[in-house]
Fold this protein.
Amino acid sequence: MTSPAAVNAAAASFASLTAKLDYLSPPDLEQVRQAYRFADQAHLGQLRNSGEPYITHPIAVATQCAEWKLDAQAVMAALLHDAIEDCNVTKTDLIELFGSSVAELVDGLTKLDKLHFNTREENQAESFRKMLLAMARDVRVILIKLADRTHNMRTLSDAPRAKWARIASETLDIYAPIAHRLGLNQTYRELQNLSFCHLHPWRFAILTKAVAKARSRRRDLIQKVHRELEAAFTTSGMKIRIAGREKTLHSIYQKMHDKHLSFAQVTDIYGFRVLVPSVSDCYTALGTLHQLYKPVPGKFKDHIALGKINGYQSLHTTLVGPSGVNVEFQLRTEAMNIVAESGIAAHWLYKVNNPQEMTNGDRLGSKWLQSLLEIQDETRDAAEFWDHVKVDLFPDAVYVLTPKSQIMALPKGATIVDFAYAIHSNVGDRTLAAKINGEQVPLRTELKNGDVIEIITAPISTPNPAWLGFVRTARARSKIRQHLKTLAQADSEGLGEKMLTQAIRAEGIEKLPDDTERNQFIWEKLLRFSGNKNKSELLTDIGLGKRIASIVAKRLLTLLTERGEKQDALLLTRERYTSNDTVSQGSIVLDGSENASVQFAPCCRPVPGDAIVGYLGRGEGLIVHAEDCAVAIKLKNKDSERFIGVDWSEEPVRSFETEILVTVTNGKGVLARVAVALANAEADITHIDMEDEAAQDASDLRFIIAVRDRNQLEIALHNLRRTPSVLKARRTKESL
C-alpha cells in the first residue's frame, strides 16, 4: 500500500503541473485533471526504481510538455503514455474516456512488447518505425516521447547499472539526433550530457572539474567582455540582451576525441549570445561587434540568410577578444532564440505568446516528417525503414543552388543524385548527367556550399543500382530501391508468363486463359492451389523460380479439362515431344533484353552460338549456363526438374561477356599489343586480372571481354594467337 507521504508528494507534484497550465482554458484544465486521476488510479501500487510512486514519472513528462505550452490533448497523453503498456488499459478504453486524438497519441508512444519478434533489434526497429510514423502524422508524439526520455535519463542513476550503457547509447544515437533534427536544442544538449555522464562517468567527472576551473580562470575575461559589449551597444542606442553560451561537456569531449586535442586546445568552450529586436538589427549589431573586436578570418556564418534544415537561424562570428583570446558570438532575435532552443515546439510557444508572429512554426521540420511517410509507403520492412531514417539524422548541411538561384539545403556528403531526388523523384529517376557551375561532373560528385547544379534528364534513363553505393539521403536511397524492386518484379512477371504459356502449350493448350469473367473461377482455383494472392504474384514466382511452370501448367490443364476443354493433339505432338521423345516445356528465346529476370552464369559466361540450358534457381530467376558447363552438369544430376529449354534469338540486341586466358612473355608494350588485337576484333575489354607475382619469363592475363557471338570470340582469339609475345590464348570455363 502506498504511504500517505508518497500520496502527498504525488499530489504536490500535480499541483506544480497545474501551476504551469495557466495557458489552458478551464474546460481543458478539467480534462487534464481527469486524465491525471485515471493515470493515478491505473498506476496505483507501482513504484519507480527510486521508490517513488510511479505517477511521478507521467507528471514530470506532462510538466515538460507544459513548459513547451503543448495543448491539453498532448498533456493528457503525457499523463497516460504508459497506461496501455503497463496497466492493461486498452486503446478502446482511452477512446471512450478521452477521445480518439488522445488515444492515437498514446498508441503512437506505446512500444510493441506484446508482439513477438525474432531479435531484440527487430523489436526495437519496429517500435521506432511505429513511433516515427505516428510522429510524422502528429509531431506531438515525438515531443511527448522526448520529454519521456529526458525524464528517464534524469533518473537513470536509480536504474540498475547494467542498463546504463544500453539506454544511454540508444539516447545518444537516436533520441538526441531526433531532438536536434527538430531544432529542440535545449533538449538535445541535455540528452547528450546525460548520456555522456552515464556512458563515461569518469571522463564526465574529469571534464566537469576542468570546465569549472576554466570558468573561474576566465571569469575576469568574461566580465570584461560583458562590460565592453554593454558600453558599445549603449553608445549605438540599440537595446540588447546578453546571455552566456557554454559548450556541452559531450561536445567538448567529442571535439577532443575527433580532432585529437587536449582540453587546453579547445578554445570555444564559452561564448556570448546577443539578442536584438529585429532581423536587420542582427546585421547592425554584427557591425558594432566587428568595430569592437577584430574578426577571425573564415569564422563567420550567416544562418539567417541560409537557415539550417531544422529551422535554426543566427549569425555566428568569432572575434579576437581581450588578451588575444578568441570569443564566439551568436546574434539573433528573441523569436529566433525560441526556435533555436525549442525548435518545432516553438509552434505552440508562439501560438500562446505571440499568435500574430507565428509564420513558419508549422513548417519547421515538416519536410522531414513528410518524407518519413513517403519512405514508409515504399519500405514495409522495419529494419530497412529505420536504416533510412538513421541516414537522415544529420546535424550539418551544405547549401546549393538550382540554375534559377533557388537555395536548397542537403546533408553534408550529399551527391548530384541526392540533389536530383530532392527536387522530385521523377527528376532523380530520369537523371542522365549533371553540371556543377557549368562543368559536367560524375553523378557521384559530392556537393559543396554555393555550387550551382544543373540536372540533365532523359526519358530513357533509369536508376542505376550503383547509385546506392554513394547516395547520402534516405529519400534518394528509398526511391532507388523501390524503382529497382518494381523493375525486377515486372521483368520476372513477364518471364513467368512466357514460361507458363510455353508449359501449357506442351500440355496441348494453345494459350493461357484470359482475364474474362468466364475464366475468373479457373484462376481463383489455380491461385488457391499455388497459395498466391493474385495472378501477377503467381507469374512473378514462376519467373523467380519459386514455382515450377510445368507443375502449375498440369494443374491448370486439370481445371480446364474439368470444364470440358480438350487438348489439341497436333499441338501436343509438336510442342511436347522432341525427336528423341524426351519431355520438353518448349524453349524460351533469349536476345539479351531480359534484364534482371535472366542471369548469364559467371562460371561459364555463355555467348550466342554456344549450346545453352536454363536453370530455375530458387528465388533467383532463370540462370543460363553453357550446356557443357561443369556447374550445370552437377546441378542437372541432383536437380533436373528445375532445368528448362532455352535458345538464342537469331538477332541478339546486345553483346555478351565471356572470359579468356592469355599467356604472354614478359616485356615492354605486351599489354598494349594484346589490347590492340582485341580492339581489331571489335571486342570490348570490361575487366582484366594480372598475376600478383609474375614468373620470370611469362605471365597469365585474364580478360573479361564483350562479344556479339561465338564467331567474334573466335576472331578475337585468332588475332591474339598471331600477336608477338602471346604464347597461348583460350576461353576459360569453370571445371569440376
Observations:
- The domain at 656-731 is CATH 3.30.70.260 (Alpha-Beta Plaits).
- The chain has five domains: 4-204, 206-361, 366-478, 483-648, 656-731.
- Residues 112-119, 350-364, 578-585 have pLDDT under 50 and may be disordered.
